[in-house]
Amino acid sequence: MAFIIYLWSVTNKDILIDEARNAALAQLWAYEALYERGGQPAVIGLVEQNLDNELINWVAITDAKGQFLAGNSRPLGKLVLADDADILEIETPLTAEDAPGWGSKAVLVRRQTINNGVTVTVARDIDELYSAQTLSRSLSWVFIAILGLISGLSLGVALYVVNRINRMSATADSIMQTGNLNERLDIDSNWDDLSKLALVLNKMLDKIEYSVQNIKSVTDNVAHDLRTPLSRLRSRLDDLPDSSLKQQALAETDVLLGMFNGLLRIADIESKRQRMGFAEVSLGEIVRDVVDLYEPYIEEKHMTLTFDIQPATLQGDRNLLFQAFANLIDNAVKYAGENAQIRVTAKETSTSYIVSVDDSGPGVDVSNFRQLDRRFYRAQESRTSKGNGLGLSMVKAVADLHNAHIYYIPDPLLEGSGLGITLMFKKPSVALG
Question: Which residues contact 85 (CB under 8 A, 6 or more apart)?
Fold first, then answer.
């Protein structure tokens, strides 16, 4: 850009004309200096000597009365010059030799009185200089236009590339944040390198999604195949005589059955079949029913329960939502500890429906938040508590089924520790950021 500005400034200056003007002034100063040393004869002698010099077009020396003394152009000495102009458009030839093909010429004329009224007038033909300068200026403007076009194209390509990279980065970040392997990078064309890269990355995502689905399928099939023999095993254990060993075996079997039932439940939810039974449900009423169910148990644990439940309705599966909210409260009761505070809120905003369960328990390290809804994941702090690590996985599956987002918040009650879990259900035609 700086070079374009410089080139524009140079092309708008009369550099060639200024050079001719300076040369004419230098010629006059030379005559004046010669006059001071050798007088009028020396000046006239030099003029006569240089009449054949191609660099000097016309010169005329006149006395105080305007009489022509020396030179090659009598009309030159009689030209009337304005104080603020030294370039004249002359239509009359300045010498007899100039008459053929003269027409009209742009002539630079400079005049200086040397001494005792003796005046020297010099003139230079600048027609060709004008043509050269006009051509140079035109070429410069063409060059500036080309540079501007190249700069504009470069800027456009740069913005396009940056925009593509930002979109690819945003999609990749979304996949990492949400774990949604159905998303793919946009492919704008088949010729640019970024589209080829996006195509390769999409193929990689296809393979990863296929592998993950296979793993889930194997897990679900194992759970399904083992649930039946486990059910038979429990039935036979139940027929055994009562003993502490029997009760221990039944408890362990129930844990395994609960785990496999949870896996199958999550698989059923993730299959999206449940969405066919969606109906308009009261979100506030569901949350209130869950709170009523857990309130006696919370009081028994000497915990403090507060809630703020506002009415709101949305399209969803009532039973699944009830189970998800129950898992959230059960999670808080299980890990917050006695004398902890639990807060349940349900509200509607202009863009979404929000349900939050917050507690003041020991909480979870922020670095583990992204793993909380992973199957079988249990934070190190909760290893000694009962559970199989499927509760929040089921909540995540229900949230995905309802196009909701799940957020984890550290120390939501500002008690120095604790964990807040928020489900945000977007309203129709409203996209969450």
Answer: none
277 shares a domain with 264: no
Q: For the chain, how many residues are written?
A: 433
The closest alpha carbon to 333, from 289, 389, 264, 385, belongs to: 385
SS3 309: strand
317 beta partners: none
In a domain, 146, yes or no: no
pLDDT in tens, 188-222: 777 778 888 888 888 888 888 887 777 666 666 66
Question: Is residue 67, in this structure, part of any structural domain at all?
Answer: yes
Is 431 a domain residue?
Answer: no
CATH number at residue 226: 1.10.287.130
Alpha-helix residue ranges (DSSP H) falling in 179-192: none
Q: Where in the sequence is the domain holding 25, given as residue range(s)?
A: 2-131
Name the token pair of 150.
């190249």
Report the distance separating Cα 425 and Cα 284, nearest Å. 13
Q: What is the number of other CB atoms lying within 10 angstroms of the CB of residue 255?
A: 13
| Alpha-carbon gap, residue 283 to 106, rounded angstroms | 91
- Tell me the CATH number at 101: 3.30.450
3-class secondary-structure state, position 306: strand
Tell me the C-alpha distance between 426 and 403, whole Å.
7
CA 166, CA 172: separation in Å to the nearest integer? Answer: 10
Q: Which DSSP helix (H) or strand (E) runs through 270? A: helix 244-270
Please tell me the pTM assigned to this model.
0.50
Q: What average pLDDT score do residues 228-234 get? A: 73
Tokens 């005792």 — which residue?
116
Query: 102 is written with which tokens?
Result: 């003269």
The 3-state secondary structure of 49-114, one letter per residue: HCCCCCCCCEEEEECCCCCEEEECCHHHHHCCCCCCCCEEEECCCCCHHHCCCCCCEEEEEEEEEE
